[in-house]
Amino acid sequence: MPVQTVTATSMAFESPTTVYTQYGQNDARHVYVGAFTTVASDTPDSFLAWCVDIFQRTFFGSTATDFDRKTASAAQLAPKTALLNTLASQSLADVQNSLTSAAFQLAVWEIVNETSSIYDFTSGSFRATNASDGSIVLAQQWLDTLPNASAAPFYNVSILESASRQDLAVFTKVPVFADVPEPSSIAVMLAGLMGYALTRRKFSK
Q: Would residue 184 count as lying in a domain?
């Protein structure tokens, strides 16, 4: 279902990290790195969004009306979906400040934009240097753990896709449902409670 409006209101954390990024041979940029505080017309609350598009721009406080919310597969990120979900499951809870926010954004960029199977900020199609903090080092540590990840991901990624703004990744928790007792287990439990009630009644007399 199309999202009517999306507004990135600001960087999510104060004093955001700055980094030099390079895609390919010529596209070098000095950019702020980190999550955006975002609002959309199809959700009641603000949320964190992470840019996956390094070619277009985001304008804070400017509302765009041409966003679609898509699955990662529909947004042609199918080969990267599992890695993005695993990254979020392992590291998103650690995002608490500008450094960790920048590290997570850098890891997302590296996964999405790297064309080889080696995720390393010093080589390949996407590179990052000269961070104003230790975010590149932390992001590399998170990326290095991905091949050995065994736990089932508990985040899903969707993409807010626009023709006029940066495409944004949004991570949502997978619902966890408690185990429902089988009917036989419920019957045993009720029988036990009835027996306990009858015993209490006998002793009370």
A: no
pTM above 0.70, yes or no: yes
pLDDT category of residue 192 using cuts at 50, 70 and 90: low
Question: What would you report as the CA-atom Rg of the chain, rounded to the nearest whole angstrom?
Answer: 23
CB 51 within 8 A of CB 166: yes
Residue 195 domain-assigned (yes or no): no
Assess if residue 190 is contained within a domain.
no
Residue bearing tokens 């700055």:
18
Neighbours of 203 (CB within 10 A): 7
pLDDT digits 0-9 by tens, 153-191: 789 999 999 999 999 999 999 876 544 445 555 455 555
Helices (H) and strands (E) in the chain, counts: 4, 9
d(CA 162, CA 198): 67
Number of domains in the chain: 1
Other beta carbons within 10 angstroms of residue 68's beta carbon come to 16
Q: Please list the residues that pair with 36 across neighbouring strands.
A: 11, 49
| 146 lies in some domain | yes
Encode pLDDT of 8-52 as tens digits: 999 999 999 999 999 987 678 899 999 999 999 988 999 999 999
Measured CA to CA, the distance from residue 89 to residue 83 in angstroms comes to 10
Q: Which domain holds residue 45?
A: 6-179
pLDDT score for 54: 87
- How many CA atoms, within 13 angstroms, populate the side-chain half-sphere of residue 158? 14
